[in-house]
Amino acid sequence: MTNKEIVAKFYDEVFNAWDTSKLDEYMLPTYKQHNPTVEDGRDGFARFCERFFAAHPKMEIVHMVEEGDLVMVFFKCTVDFGVNKVCDIYRMENGMLAEHWDVVQHLDPDQVPVNDNGQF
User: Fold this and answer.
1) N or C: which end of the chain has fewer CB within 10 A?
2) Helices (H), 13-94
3) What CA–CA distance (Å, rounded) separates 120 from 105?
4) What are the pLDDT digits (tens) for 73-95?
5) pLDDT at residue 58 in the model
6) Coil, strand, or helix at residue 94?
7) 3-state SS, residue 5
């Protein structure tokens, strides 16, 4: 299985299923987090998910790119309070998530676009 396929499966089985029981299968215990609101490690990620899953997230992957040990996921994240445009970047190690960076844009439903290109 490629790193990209592993990350796609992680999104299905963890994020979209709202289930952290399989973190041992996907994430190194030394998982390093670059989002300042999420703790390092599997346990830190699980604590983040407790809060995050309460907003009933649904991830719709738009693009995925794999280059070497890095996987980039660009997706639409719909939660109870709105829609976010997100780019996650993972560094993989031995087929497992080792490190994470993200960029999140909260979409304003009242914003009038100046083009017809769409957000995604």
Assistant:
1) N
2) 23-26, 41-53
3) 12
4) 999 999 999 999 999 999 999 99
5) 97
6) coil
7) helix
